[in-house]
Task: structure prediction
Amino acid sequence: MILIVDDAPENIISLKKVLEKNGFEVDTASSGDEALKKILKKSYVLIILDVQMPGMDGFEVAEAISGYSKAKETAIIFLSAASANVNLITRGYISGGLDYISKPVDMNILLLKVKTFYRIYEQSRALNEMQKKLLEEIEFRKEAERKKDEFISIASHELKTPMTSIKGYIQLLERSVDKNDTQTVKVRLHKVQNQVEKLNLLVADLLDISKIESGKLKFNRKYFNFDKILDHIIEIMQQANPNVKFIRKGEIHSEIFGDEMRIEQVIINFITNAIKYAPESNEVHITSEQRGDEIYFSVKDFGIGIAKDHQLRIFDKFYRVEETSERFQGLGIGLYICQEIIERHQGSIGINSEPGEGSEFYFNIPLHPETDAQS
Ligand code: ADP
Result:
């Protein structure tokens, strides 16, 4: 918008008319004081300023606005009979641009100058916009790079832990083999197997992440018996964690349509976390029940729990509760994958938790999902 400042109403009217006819938006002020008030409130691209006005003259107005942040980008065209002094008097004004036109005003020249200032203004605005976007992009990439580095360091550490155990057990195995001690060989082989399984799960999770990113996580759906796979998982979990008491509630009578292996993955993840994040407790409650056309499944522990603000982000990729991340190993991707699996089954995943009291992770999925969402 352009602001015309002139004490003579007839000048204002004729200038306004020409500018508006050429598509510019125009505001007016009939004194220096009024102009200052308007400039304080609004941003103008250009001010056309009469030099000779009673009270505050045009140069004084220019000096006064030189400090306004709102007028930082504003250009000024003086309408002056005494054009020679313009640069001297207003050198304090470091604005978007400065120019003058001698009176009587040649409208063609004025229009030319106005258009030039507008073009410069548009160009500098576009440049600023581009610079802002570029800076945002740089920040975004820096943050992504930092997250990636952090992830690689955590992932390598997580992979190294079972690797080191495997190496150690194999050395011990060699000794037991030399001694022909079959009993100990069996025990150590079992331990190696456990660590290999850990490694396998970690690599599978990492692969899942990259499949999710590239939209290539595929599902192999068919009807299956939910409670049967749940019983099977609990049996295996019980063998691996003899000290934990699994309390099973509810029953599902219908078969459900989904990817058995992927649902199994979610159940295992919930139970593994319930054991991992409740080192002081040995009870895990597992519920599966039919609620209308949906199944409800939950795993409740009596462990460290999660504060409300973390609960909102717990399903984000790589998110781990910082205060406890040193104490418990992990990559922060299990729940992210669980969420993807459940949402792709048209279900919902959630958590109820109180710090210090424990957590309950649950999901709902439809027994018979709509067919067009299957892939
Ligand atoms: P990981 O356990 O490998 O870090 P997850 O994605 O499974 O990754 O979990 C993300 C984070 O959620 C964990 O780091 C932990 O802070 C928190 N969390 C998950 N399950 C529980 C639980 N049962 N009790 C308390 N905190 C949990």
